[in-house]
Amino acid sequence: xxxxxxxxxxxCFGYLIAPFFTNRFFLNQSKVYTRFHLISITLVILAIxxxxxxxxxxxxxxxGFGMILFxxxxxxxxxxxxxWIKFFPLGFSSISSVWFFCGTNECSLLGYNTTWxxxxxxxxxxxxWLFLSGVIFLFAKNxxxxxxxxxxxxxxxxxxxxxxxxxGNPNLKKFGVIGYLFLLPFSLIHSNILFQNQNPISRxxxxxxxxxxxxxxxxxxxxxxxxxxxxxxxGYPLMVLVHGMINxxxxxxxxxxxILFREMKTVP
Length: 268
Description:
Layout: H1 2-26, H2 31-49, H3 57-74, H4 81-84, H5 87-104, H6 114-141, H7 147-167, H8 170-190, H9 200-225, E1 232-233, E2 236-237, H10 238-263
Antiparallel strand pairs: 1-2
Helix pairs in contact: 1-2, 1-6, 1-10, 2-3, 3-5, 5-6, 6-7, 6-10, 7-8, 8-9, 9-10
């Protein structure tokens, strides 16, 4: 029970910040989207606090609205590669919303119980929605980096491999973890946010994000391959309390914050 509340806290933080970056990166800072987000996140918090699980369906509607708005804004160039690849984060936002609804309503989608549904929602939110949003935005700014598209597609493929491997084939999950161990840090380095960056605050945030990302990936690797790796700390799963919270509150905000500061003019 306490684990589920911790997972919901992490998930709600993701739902609080993800639409802000989506709006800024892909939706031309739509005021309608912002208002819908404020209403939706308020209803989601009420749904959790007052235990009204059906109310969480509003987040599915909000995520769907984001996809429709994206289509409306970019429909004239939708089939250009640099446009449709931006649709991945919005797609993951909808996937996360479905898992969140299934978790709160105990739907047992694909056999996942409430806890595992929240895990699926969190990974969809933080990797598929937030992290991919930043990576895709950076690669779109430098369209000469054709390998950026390959990196994005590989991140998506590895995500699916891990998802299918969790309950099906453990070897698939191990393969996905090893893939992320190398690919996620490489995607940050290759995006030039660390080096070709004139804003000192942005550089600090980007390097902090890379450091903590490598730390959490090492934790995930030890958890996956070392049998004696501790599973619990202070009565909570170690991977949730340490790995999950570092990623949610340090890695992702630092990475996306570094992008925002880089877009600002450097103060002389």
